[in-house]
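quick one, 628 residues, struct below
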Amino acid sequence: MRLFSKRYDSSTFIIFFIMLMLKMLLFRYFVFKGIRLDYLLTDAAAVLTLLLLADLSASARWRGIVLGILNAVLSLLLFASTVYFSYYGTVPTYTALHGLDQVLQIRTSVGSIIQAVYYLFFLDVAVFAMLYIVKRIRGTRSDGRKRIARPLFTGLAFVVCVAVSGGFIWLAKDIPNEIVQAESLGFIDYQVAAAIKAGKEQSTIKNGSVEETAASAAALQDSYFDQMGAATVAGTPNYFGFAKGKNVIVVQMEAFQNFAINLSVDGREVTPVLNMLAKESFYFPNFFQQIGQGNTSDAEFMSNTSIYPTGDMAMSTGFGDRVLPGLPRLLGDHNYISNTFHINNVTFWDRNRMYPALGFTNYYDKPAFENDHFNSFGASDEELYKVGLEKLQLLKQQNKPFYAQFVTTSSHHPFKVPSERQRIMMPDKLQGTQLGDYLTALNYTDYALGVFIDGLKASGLWENTVLVAYGDHAGLQVKDNDPAWVSEQLGIHYDNQISRYNIPLLVHVPDAEGKLVQQVGGQVDIMPTISNLLGLSLKDEGYTVFGQDLLNTTNNVIGMRYYLPTGTFFNNDILFVPGKGFEDGTAIDIRTREPVAQFSQYRDDYDYILELMRLSDDYVRLLPKRAP
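---
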């Protein structure tokens, strides 16, 4: 076959165009679950633009090779993006490349979601064979006039295709819903649109001011809550300073969904420790994840800063070079020692940059723990807490108040707990299922937390410590857990959006009675809630936050992006997911899990959350960089 020889003619170009269009169709089928014929023109214009650019850039001898490389690169990108969508539920942009170095550390999880059919992106043998036959039949041309005219016609076609693609990008520029925008533009033009948007954001930042942005955010929140009803009680807020001077421990529980709380399987509680803790704490059952591309690390970022993730990269990667105003820095100004514990290598998700940016005094990562080979990450939660408790006891002996963050991993996907560490037996109907493995992992996570609490009590730390426990993000994968099947197996109403993104938040305060708080909240609300309990006014301290104190909020609306599109919000009544805009969006009642047909009264919430998240993005991008 002379496909990549100097005997290049138009048939080679046509075959590559056909191959890439077939792959674009395949991508649409896998990601968007269907193929709309009216969107094929966008794919065709984008593919032709790349092919014509390659054709113009290479000599006749190298054109076949250049087109072959282009085909291979796009095949790999489409394959990787399909796998990415299966895991995250969103179409990645080129910014996802920032996280490529993290893949090896979660290869077990990534490998488990790859379907054999995805390898069709690389199935080009038949097409190459067809190209060989066509070339053998047609031979090559040597007409000098055609060789001279060819660059002119190719250049004109390139200009036309660029204009067509540019028109589609311009028409879709105001669609906040990334998935709808990606479907309307196609994979290639969606990347171009993302680059244009990033360029505009950078231009805005160059002319922006962090002080002005903070003032705009405060004015927006004040105006919104004044219209919706007072966010806080008059005078001193509820529970202000109730835990003043006490230690703070925040436990971020890996992949922990709220439906497991108070759930029993075959008469056995899945989370007996958390069930008891919920009765003795402020328990928020209507609490939701808000993470972006950084997953677990984004949850750490948000809980500590009350700033939204931008969604285009992990916050630890994109902003680890900044001075991040958050809990460690705030409490450090009040003589707290702040430590964070995570059994991964600290370079995972660039935490070696994020922790200093947040102002943590110390971090303890992989070398600090004995690897008991619990899962692919290494050490178990029991080992995590054992080492952490030892360090906290030393601080107690030195009479130093502390803020400690624990990031658990034993319930990480794919949720395989060693048989000798399992503490609950799943019924036969759940054996060998992801749901059964997931509940087994959550049960172990719950057990290890109980061991830690027992250690805090035995060491005399419990009565002087605020304990906050929350989930970082969803665990159950959509493709392995049909909502109707999960509902039937567990005897609950499991919704693929509400239940999936609903995570627990429990705040245990010594000497405070337990209370079930139905107020809707998200990870952006954790820092303001803790600060209020400690008697620290964020306004007086000069901190800008984008969440609310959940113990003093009567109306709340929180935004979400990435796993659901920008413009998504939760309020006290519904989860709203936009279409191209507000009017064609969908709404679900957060308590009944039933669709809500009439949601026009929530238009102000939609406009507010879009503006709040825009200001949050501008604010974090404007934060000063740290000295090297």
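The chain has 20 helices and 15 strands.
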